[in-house]
Target: UspA domain-containing protein
Amino acid sequence: MQNLINTLLVAVDFTEKSNNAVKMAVHIATRHEARVILFHNITNHTIIDRTGKQVIGAETIDENYKKTEHALKELELSLKEQYPVLDFKTIIKNDSVVYGINHVIDSEMVDLVICGSSGQQNFAQLLLGSLSYQILTEVDCSILLVPENCSKYSFDKILVPVRVLEDLTDKIELSVAIAKKNKGIISLLGISDEDDILKIRDAYQRAKTNLAIRSQEYDSQFLLTRDKATQISKFSQEDNADIIILNYKDEDSWKSFFLENFFKQIINYTDIPLLFLKNNRVKIKSNSTDNAAFDITLPCPG
Model:
């Protein structure tokens, strides 16, 4: 089977969350014989006046860049010592996080972005958007969110919900590839409400046939519910799943950001890694293509 994961990008900010994401990345890279890009972004703070944008503290930015470069290099050397057969590369960008990651995805042909997640959002993050949620919704390839408290780095039980039809064949192919590398079992979960039951049940049956053709060990179950995120999270606990593989499709995207859509629910209520398959042939339009700025433009005198 073709290796579907050849290049990983892991977002590094030297927190416990990102340290755990790095640990997950090297374990995945070892199984898939993939290379690992250690990515860090430095965001400038600017002011805007009548003369245009000006960077605040250019000397401080330069100093931070050198410190970051040194810290990343130390991390790379440490990982190379522990995993001598893996190929590591460090990249630092000086832009918005999403724009920087998308640039690397294009230039390095990244297959999977790995990001640490707290698994919880406070009210401010709900309003402004947590970094992991922003990366999930705006980068141009598949995303793996790794909870900070995750301590298992192999995927023996792989939960694959069938809840939407988009890219389902690709998701099954990726799930089988991961299962083969982990010698794991796929747990196929058909999950639907009353409105979509016929088409989802048909897709669920086709997925079962696909797994059987590929000689992939699996078990299966079908649930009827409107509360899909909660039920998937609950099922993952009962099934002792190690990872959930989801389509990048939110059927509840119409909901206000004051409410919890499918993505926010599944992130908040699940404490195992979440892999969102995203079709990298479709570019996501990002609203974050510029550095943070503070507008202090004053009105003209008189």
